[in-house]
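Why do we bother with a discrete structure alphabet at all? Because it lets us treat a fold like text: something you can write down, compare, and reason about line by line. To make this less abstract, here is a complete entry for Hydroxyacid dehydrogenase. Read it the way you would read a sentence in a foreign language you are learning: slowly, and without expecting to understand everything at once.
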Amino acid sequence: MSRKPIVAVLHAQVLPRNDLMAPVDSRAEVRYTDEAGLARALDGADVLFLYDFLSGAVPAAWHAADSLQWLHIAAAGVDPVMFPEARDSDVTITNSRGVFDGAIAEYVLAQILSFAKDLPGSLRLQQSHTWKHRESERIAGRTALIVGTGPIGRAVARLLRAAGMTVRGSGRRGRESDPDFGVVLPADDLPAQLADADYVVAVAPLTEQTRHMFCAETFAAMKPGARFVNVGRGELVRTDDLVEALRSGTIAGAALDVFDSEPLPADHPLWDMPNVSITPHNSGDFAGWRDALVTVFTDNFERWVAGHPLENVVDKQLGYVPSR
């Protein structure tokens, strides 16, 4: 490329740090923009860095992407950019796979321990100044089914195994002797896999095949004492069915970091359920995560400028980065 490449960076209130963007700023014309200016910034741009990974503005501005070669999203999930025009284009899409794996695994373990030791119940007793002896559950020997066998699912599996839990995976293809999951069962048999799981952890990407995979049928297939942890996507769950399963005692509890409507409406029944833990889509947001996302992009930018293969290339038909 004889001219400087043009890189559009879509941001919200927070800009990437200047020092971290220096490798890009020194080699490219960088256009920082909010949603309102995205179409103008895309005109003639070679690269789009979707730093505002929650934005839904890309489809409406896509008509202006007349020179775009590469789109990078600062997230593990790529569903915001899997609209038909992008999927059918020649634009390479990459994601930020690997940044959140360890933090999300720690979150899942924390939620499982919170259920087993009833930490919310202890806090309620403390707040009422009540001294009440109780017994707790062990997690060692309990079974976790991890639905989604990508890098985040693998990090969760390794940590739960280290804590003494029996772990299985549920993925697109079944296989034996997996180094992290032991056994991976085919997702087509998900209802049959749920009956033995004490904890069901959803980390699957959002695709047309996984949307609403957790519904009345799958919750009914779980054991009554099972707990459900969702750190994947809110749209993996039919939320009304989850509420009914919790109310009826079909399952014993849920820890939810993602929702099909975010922020979760203030009047939503999930807020007031004593067997539900809610966090605001921050299970992977460790101190320094925003900077780590910029570094993933700038490292890939160095490869792109040098003509080397990009990391974390999304298979646009599958809707995620295939496992190595």
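What the structure line is telling us, in plain words: The radius of gyration is 21 Å. Residues 17 and 291 are 7 Å apart (CA to CA).
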